[in-house]
Design goal:
Organism: Jiangella asiatica
Protein name: Peptidoglycan bridge formation glycyltransferase FemA/FemB family protein
Structural class: alpha+beta
CATH superfamily of the largest domain: Gcn5-related N-acetyltransferase (GNAT)
Oligomer: single chain
Low-confidence stretches: 169-173
GO biological process, one term: peptidoglycan biosynthetic process
Pfam families: FemAB
CATH class of the largest domain: Alpha Beta
Keywords: Acyltransferase, Cell shape, Cell wall biogenesis/degradation, Peptidoglycan synthesis, Transferase
Number of helices: 13
Mean pLDDT: 94
Strand content: 25-35%
Length: 378
Amino acid sequence: MQAPALAVREISTEQHLAAIQDRSSVSFLQTPAWGVVKRDWRSQPVGWFAGDTLVGVGLVLYRQAPRVRRYFAYIPEGPSLDWAGIAAAGDLQRWLTPLVEHVKSQGAFGLRMGPMVITRRWHNATLKAALADPDVKRLDDVPADETTSGGAALTRQLTDAGWRPPAIADGFAAGQPRHVFQLPLEDRSEDDVLRGFNQLWRRNIKKAEKAGVTVTQGGADDIPAFHELYAETAQRDGFTPRPISYFQGMWEAMTAEAPDRLRLYLAHHDGDLVAATTMTRVGAHAWYSYGASSTAKRDVRGSNAVQWQMIRDAIADGCAVYDLRGITDTLAEDDPHAGLIRFKLGTGGHAVEYVGEWDLPISRVLYSAFDLYMKRRG
């Protein structure tokens, strides 16, 4: 029996929220609130319809190209579809053709999307062994402990349909990370998770407790203090910080959509703010999104204390995954990104590779010109 034809059209915020409400894992970048956060982009929730039945949703962001009324369309970590069923059925084009037609009708000259479909996993012990081996430089050098048939099938179908991954710069993709680090929480207690931490993490958590570090949740009034610490972290670690208005807008939009969509955590020691983080949550998936720490009082281990509190809260909320977000694929000791993997590895979690982001040029001339413009903007 032939599957029914699909149509893609704009939907309301209410339809979008209702569609993701009961899903266990939808990226926070695919919530209506994220469209409000990204003020430099025009946002549009869209739905896939089989007749009158809504069978999939996505948040499309549009950025206008310079001097022309044409747009680059972007679906970060989405759309939210039955990717396992699509990969198994081999009917990707049935789903993507109406999407491309829709964004083209909106003036899009190119489209990027990043399905949250896992292709490979590397277990904690495998990563530890790889980091200890001087001949291993990248994750691709290490056989994965798990490889998914759905991820491989989807990658083949995207390639066959003319989609291509965007360029990689300095170890990270131009958009959202392809490799992330996740700590599984399903059916695990606090004690189970704590036993999975390495000795250094457990020691640092105890050190923070003994030093009297306290971790509390903050509100909108605490964003200036968080941002001051975040700016200090940016200067120390050499990255460009986002302005305070970005976090204020993020707080306003995301907490208005759902009270627990975004949380702010503050770690204090003797009245001094020593670490601060934000955690986002959709369904049973929690993400560590932004972090900051003071240069002073590093010895009281505020960063470990605040991470442990977020993990404990994620367990209490019934989350299945605590996501520490992006890592690069580097395992080389002399690469500065390797320290990030080592820190996250201490939680006992594992590395995950997604299908990643894929681009489809609709107008190759405009797509190439816009790509060059974005690279020059840095």
